[in-house]
TrEMBL record:
Residues 21-117, 145-238 form the AB hydrolase-1 domain. The keyword Cell inner membrane does not apply. One of its GO terms (cellular component) is membrane. InterPro entries: AB_hydrolase_1, AB_hydrolase_fold, AB_hydrolase_sf. This is Alpha/beta hydrolase. Keywords: Hydrolase. It comes from Flavobacterium cheongpyeongense.
Amino acid sequence: MDKHYKKEGKYSYFEAGEGTPIVILHGLMGGLSNFDGVAQYFPTKGYKVVIPDLPIYTQSILKTNVKSFAKYVKDFINFKGFDKVILLGNSLGGHIALYHTKLYPEKVAGLVITGSSGLYESAMGDSYPRRGDYEYIKKKSEDVFYDPKIATPDLIDEVYATANDRIKLIKTLTIAKSAIRHNMAKDLPKMTVETCIIWGKNDSVTPPNVAEEFDKLLPNSTLYWIDKCGHAAMMEHPEEFNEILEEWLTKKNFSSI
């Protein structure tokens, strides 16, 4: 991933491939590496994969909210000179993608959400990270996945470091409150963009009924399930995730935009 990582102006991002741009938005505790499977696969299929580093912990506290992050994504898309993009988001990234689509629908050709917040916020709000309690952080990290082994020691250490950084913890709580404030239930029925919903059947963070609610409220959505899968389908079952996404992209003829 390193050789495709760029820094230009205020933006840091991964970019690979040529063709229709797929802009990927990572979650609250997630990084660019969560999407390694997508980033390696789709550039070989005629797509340009772009993953910006979202300024989740670097913007001022006043700009630490879903709406400001959505504007950041719009500014990034304009900076890259993209006319229309496919937005793909996991967890908080899905919420940002949804809110961006609400505010700037003219920029979004298609939307892909997986384990997204926006309707049900235990994703961030039910038990805030406890500082200094490594075993608690380890358990919470493992609970994100159906297979706890996906939560590697490196991943757990990263979450632990974030929970023990006072400024990051304050911003995490600020984002959790913002996610609740920016609930999308009333907006979704007006959003007509073609949407692919890929969900883990065993997601305990945003349970399956959340996916069903998204599917019910969004006018042009298709819901796909991945079995034995938790909150981050693109990490836990990358091959199946890519197959589903490619099938949907082909069916909707997005390679031609």
